[in-house]
Amino acid sequence: MFDDMSPAEFARRRDDGELWQLLDVRERWETDTASVSGSILIPMGEVVARHGELDMSTPLAVLCHSGIRSASVAGYLARAGFSRVVNIAGGIDAWSISVDKGIPRY
Fold it and tell me: Which of 64, 71, 85, 89 is an active site residue?
């Protein structure tokens, strides 16, 4: 099971010192266009093979462009045993509107 979290809520928690992993499941060309500092890039199609690169005991937020791919990956990771998983609702698009207007929208 996973929850949705708004980009603003995630950014506030991270800025308040909460330790989170931010997994970006978009393709490389997308992250080259717009990205959030400190995120871990594992494209959606590689998550099954590479999720071992993530710390299962540290809370994990999953990000994509609009929140659809990340919701799918969040569900998978929750079923795979990650302790706390959230989907960043609205993805990088919502992030660029509500958290950092300097991140390009595409």
Answer: 64
Q: What is the mean pLDDT of each run of 10 residues along the chain (106 residues)?
A: 97 96 98 96 98 96 98 98 96 97 96
81 carries an active-site annotation: no
Strands (E), 16-102: 21-24, 40-41, 60-63, 85-88
Q: Whole-model pTM?
A: 0.96
Topology at the third CATH level for domain 3-98 = Oxidized Rhodanese; domain 1 (3.40.250)
Q: Is 57 helix (H, G, I), strand (E, B) or coil?
A: coil
Sheet of 60-63: strand order equals 3-5, 85-88, 60-63, 21-24, 40-41
